[in-house]
Amino acid sequence: MPIDDSGYDREAVRRVLDQAGAEGRSSLTAPEGRLVVEAYGIATPGEGLAGSADQAVALAEEMGLPVVLKIVSPDILHKTEAGGVLVGLGTAAEVAAGYDTIIANAKAYRADAKIVGVQVQQQLSSGHEVIVGTVTDQTFGKVIAFGLGGVLVEVLKDVTFRLAPTDTATALSMIDGIASAEILRGVRGAEPANREVLSDLIVRLSDLVTDFPELAEVDLNPVLATSTGATAVDVRILVDPKAAERPEQFTDEEILASMNRIMRPASVAVIGASAEAGKIGNSVMKNLVNGGYRGEIYPINPKATEILDRKAYKSITDVPGPVDVAVFAIPAKFVPQALAEVGAKGVAGAILIPSGFGETGNHELQAEVLAVARQYGVRILGPNIYGYYYTPESLSATFCTPYDVKGGVALSSQSGGIGMAILGFSRSARMGVSAIVGVGNKADIDEDDLLTFFESDPNTQLIAMHLEDLKDGRSFARTAKRVSATKPVLVLKAGRTDQGAKAASSHTGALAGNDKVYDDILRQSGVIRAPGLNDLLEYARGIPLLPTPQGENVVIITGAGGSGVLLSDACVDNKLTLMEIPPDLDEAFRRFIPPFGAAGNPIDITGGEPPSTYRNTIALGLSDPRIHALILGYWHTIVTPPMVFAELVVDVVEEFRAKGIHKPVVASLAGDVEVEEASEHLYRHGIVAYPYTTEKPVAVLGAKYRWARSAGLLGGQPDGR
User: Fold this and answer.
1) Pairing of strands 141-148, 159-163
2) Quick count: other Cβ atoms within 10 Å of Cβ 24?
3) How is the beta sheet containing 395-398 ordered, strand by strand?
4) CA-CA distance, 10 to 2, in Å (whole number)?
């Protein structure tokens, strides 16, 4: 057998696939599937193919009873549904009768099915049933799945996903990452599964589909896992040459060459500029001018000589100097011709505001526009967008109003409506942003391009993205993993509902149809996923204000027992660790709180305490190096009014900052309307604070912790949580 240095027999796999391709088949038979996985060192039960009842009996007696019989037909994928599986056949008579039954069931299920024979398989009686499979995901390409298997796999859906190829460490994280991991470790005296053997099987299957990307789906279900081995009892493989196709990709250098000109243009042309108020071309011109953009602005309009005191040109080709960016404000049908002129001019980026492309079903026009852009090397943002902002350049290339609060947060949205919400929130919260970008239909430029630019952008410290889909999830995951090591990447993924009900030809295919694929792969890439739009925006606003924690110990200091309970619940929900207070620290806190208060964690100072109690306990929390983050729960009282509380918190936190002690501090304020002003005062001074909620400040702190863990900044290894 021609086995290479990896221990894999690739020639054996190629022979099977070539045979299936020559016959025009999109699936392999069970015996063929067995040959393929065995070529990669994956164990299968003893089995053989019978063409008659007598052959079935002979095979069964040779391998040892009991056995399992399975129909072998390229036209019957779901054998159980067809009555094509019989188990526990313990005598020769049962095997002979079973053969006839399976053949009859198959013909009744599908009269025109090509029947190769009946597979006789050794029946294994022990081990945990798990599923190991791969699917070619539309977004992420080759994805590998692991979870509890057997007939209930699609009901339990206890499965986790990773990108293929994978390594041993990632495979082990899959085994430990399902909800039922404890079962595989052996409970109540049950035999445990061998994690090392299982992880090796996962890696081998991952290598198989990486070497042969035309393997569209591979389903090993069940795999019987014991303390000594793992055997793939049932193998189902689908083949599709299209599964090997990969999306078009640009190098990072190519992306940056274009994006730097687009985000920092020396000149901007407005195709369809107008002097008439209410026109998009007029709004774009006004925003460029009134927003303070200092580069050259060229209005393009064949019927005008001057717009907003600037000379107008009939065509961009008439502009005397170079142009970096062209903003399109013309009807969709005129875009291809105008884009060709833009390309001939050597423009780097075309900002396509118009609608009427793929979002309305006009995919042909969108494809034509992209083809023109590729011909001339122009990158397209859009179409169907509100434009974009880049505040370091005072650039408002949009029909929305200008935005001038500069800061380190870059935001993007696939939806124009969500983009307006982002703009409104940022303005209301006075959130400093570096960029706000609409990507719309993503005919070309997408989130991967934006991440690559923002990674290198010194003006951006955090990236927050709303997306409905990813064009190339594999590329995005790779880029996000690299970027998130230094800058938090937040994502709001729309469409979290289960799409798994779609027709699928394998268990893995059905399982991969739901949002769990996005969730697992984004987490492994270090991305912080926000559950909703307001969460995304609050995370974006709050995370940059919080110092990176130096450890996991979180302490709650509260003036109300009820708030302390809710804050504790929120900590559990956000995977924060409430510190176990050691005796000496417990004694230190008790010096500042009344006898009827409670030390421990939460530390309940009670509601009637003066400002000094808050000050002293917070100062103790900041000074003790064993405490890594503080959550404050304030209760509105006459003794310590809201603004008094806010000002003393700011004072004590800034006192410790001056000493070089920086710990994340968040606050929840309960009380009458004065707590709103107090919360705003805290936020303005770098303390994430909210009135009327115990959940939100803890959620922001939890998001900061998730990023710090995935980036490996807490002293341990990144765990992707």
Assistant:
1) antiparallel
2) 6
3) 395-398, 387-390, 433-438, 406-413, 462-467, 489-493, 528-529
4) 8
Residue 686 in contact with residue 545, Cβ under 8 Å? Answer: yes
Distance of CA 586 to the CA centre of its chain: 41
Tokens 């995977």 locate to 575
479: enclosing H helix or E strand: helix 473-483
Look-up of token digits 């124009």 = 416
Q: Give how far Cα 207 sits from Cα of 10, 202, 203, Å.
A: 11, 9, 6
Q: What is the mean pLDDT of each run of 10 residues along the chain (721 residues)?
A: 75 97 93 96 92 94 92 88 93 95 95 93 86 92 90 72 96 94 83 95 98 96 93 94 90 97 98 96 97 97 95 97 97 98 98 96 97 98 97 97 94 94 94 97 96 98 95 95 97 70 44 76 95 97 97 95 93 97 94 81 89 96 98 94 98 98 97 97 97 98 97 63 37
Task: Residue 100: count other Cβ atoms within 10 Å of its Cβ.
Answer: 13
Please tell me the predicted confidence (pLDDT) of residue 134.
95
Spatial contact of 381 and 444, defined as CB atoms under 8 Å apart: yes
Quickly tell me which residue has 């925006």 as its tokens: 537
Torsion of CA 341, 342, 343, 349, to 10 degrees: -160
Res 156: pLDDT: 63
Enumerate residues 6+ apart whose C-beta is below 8 A from 187: none
pLDDT for 599 equals: 72
Query: Which residues are within 8 A (CB) of 594 and not within 5 positions of it... i.e. 6 or more apart?
Result: 605, 606, 609
The pLDDT value given to residue 496: 66
CA dist., res. 110 & res. 124, Å (int): 29
617 burial (CB, 10 Å; 0-12 / 13-18 / 19+) is buried
Residue 193 phi/psi, 5-degree rounding, is -85, 150
pTM higher than 0.90 for the full model?
Answer: no
Q: How many CB atoms lie within 10 A of CB 76?
A: 21
Q: What token pair was written down for 397?
A: 């290339």
pLDDT of residue 560: 85
Residue type, 573: D
Give dist(CA 296, CA 267) in Å, integer: 4
pLDDT of residue 356: 96
d(CA 137, CA 143): 6
Positive or negative torsion for Cα 164, 165, 170, 175:
positive
- Tell me, what DSSP letter sits at residue 423? H
Q: CA torsion angle for 326, 328, 332, 333 (degrees, to 10)?
A: -60
Alpha carbon distance 383, 368 (integer Å)? 12
Alpha-carbon distance of 41 to 34, in angstroms, equals 11
Distance, CA of 244 to CA of 19 (rounded, Å): 18
pLDDT at 158: 87
- CA 270, 276, 280, 284 torsion-angle sign: positive
* Neighbouring-strand partners of residue 350: 326, 380
Angle in degrees, 0-180, between the axes of helices 674-684 and 642-658, rounded to the nearest 10:
10
Residue 513: left if φ>0, alpha if ψ -120 to 50, beta else—which one?
A: alpha
Nearest partner of 133 among 511, 410, 485, judged by Cα: 511
Answer yes or no: are the C-beta atoms of 349 and 381 closer than 8 Å. Answer: yes
Inter-axis angle of helices 53-63 and 92-109, nearest 10: 130
243 vs 240: CA distance, rounded Å: 5
Tokens 């859009």 locate to 382
Tell me the C-alpha distance between 665 and 628, whole Å. Answer: 9
DSSP code at position 333: G
* Predicted pLDDT of residue 509: 47
* Phi/psi of residue 78, nearest 5 degrees: -95, 90
Asked if residues 513 and 519 have their Cβ atoms less than 8 Å apart, the reply is: no
Contacts of 696 (CB under 8 A, 6+ apart): 538, 668, 690
Residue 172 and residue 162 in contact, taking contact as beta carbons nearer than 8 Å: no
